[in-house]
Amino acid sequence: MTLQIGYVHLIIVGAFVVAAWLLATYLSPRLMLLPYKRGILNQGIENGPIPVNTLYVQSAELFVNPFTALPAGSSKLLSYGTNRDTLYVVGWVDLSKGPQVLTVPDMGGRYYSVQLTDPSKNTNFSYVGTRTTGSAAGTYLITGPGWTGQVPSGMRQISSPNGAVLVAGRVFVQDYADAPAAYGMAAQVTLAPLAG
Amino acid sequence: MSRTYRYIVIAVGAVCLYFLVRLLFFTDLTTRNVPSDVFQGILVGAGLALVTAQLYGRTKVKKINGWTTAIGAGASDSGMFLRAANSWAFPGPIAVAEEATYWRTGSDGAGHTLNGSHRYVLHFPPGQLPPTDAFWSLTMGDGQNRYVPNPLDRYHVGNHSGLVPNTDGSVDIYLQSSAPLGHEANWLPAPAGDFILWLRVYIPGAAILDGTYAVPPVTKVDGS
């Protein structure tokens, strides 16, 4: 009898080890992206928090001088993973109240990408940009799971597997002198709710 | 992976293993109670998740000439364990390989830590610059992946920075703290201490995606 009670404990521990192992593995990407969600929505980078469904564009000044002191309380997201190639465009999208329209300008051959990441898995479900959609201007309707509306003409639909989307855009900067021009293009990458 | 981080992971793994071995072979199981079964089970399971993500990540990292790159990062078809491994290796929204492939190194081809007290060359043989449909760049950071100010205000070089090829068409990039006389255009200034390098190729060519392209090693040239 005592032997059997002992084995019950072994089974309970074993079951919780396996369950916690699988759950923690499954949740890891989501947990590791929480600082990004907080960095975007609560802290911001240069000008305070970045409201949901808007895009922050890294300033030319910050790009040219990476030693620029950021305002107190700012997220340090852009100071990690040194990158001198592109300006960042960053935002957090919530599709629960309806689709968002992503507008990109004619980049005139300048390399760019707008990466759409599923924050529950940290995988990228779609790209808009040089590689995937070319350099021309375009409007894209980002829709959440289960959305059944009509896609307006002239828009291309991008179906998100998740109601939340992490947007990470990258716009090529040739050199320091080119940074303001790159910013001018990057600032034309915008989000807006679907009208009507 | 930083050394501290590696030690933490090893310690977590050791504690989990110790707990399981002790539980299986050296515990009078009848003295246990259900609340601690649950609590310790969850802790050990979470610890094992951390360790297995690292171990699995290591099998997925591709190493060539001291450079490391990850396979399948950010890809929407990656499975649960690969997603976990990548999320620990790259805390952030990393690009898929087709959009941009990154290699990182903190050591030369011989395996020694890169340090600004030495002089190094990254030599691309003729025709062996990274194949790309967009651009590539080589970026330097210190041991903590931060920029270090230098007189040129130069933190990266690439196919758009005016690198001067040698007469045979090969390209040398000079990685050192003092200016290489006559090769300033190909100089990426190094800080005084340890440093790391990122090679980024945006819209990489087929030879990168199919794994046939080999990034050349960083070679120490001052002999000591």
Structural notes for this entry:
The complex is a heterodimer of chains A (196) and B (224). By secondary structure, chain A is of the alpha+beta class. Chain A has one domain (41-193): Immunoglobulin-like (Sandwich), CATH 2.60.40. Chain A contains three helices and nine strands. In chain A, the strands form two sheets. Chain A has a five-stranded antiparallel β-sheet. In chain A, strands 7-6-3-9 form a four-stranded mixed β-sheet, with no helix packed on it. Chain B is an alpha+beta fold. Chain B has two domains: 3-60; 95-220, Domain of unknown function DUF1214, C-terminal domain (Jelly Rolls), CATH 2.60.120. Chain B has helices spanning 3-25, 34-60, 80-89, 206-209, and strands at 61-64, 67-70, 100-105, 120-124, 132-142, 156-158, 171-176, 187-189, 195-204, 218-220. Chain B has a four-stranded antiparallel β-sheet. A four-stranded mixed β-sheet of chain B has the order 8-7-4-10, with no helix packed on it. The longest helix of chain B is centred in the first third of the chain and has 27 residues, at 34-60. The chains are: A alpha+beta (196), B alpha+beta (224).
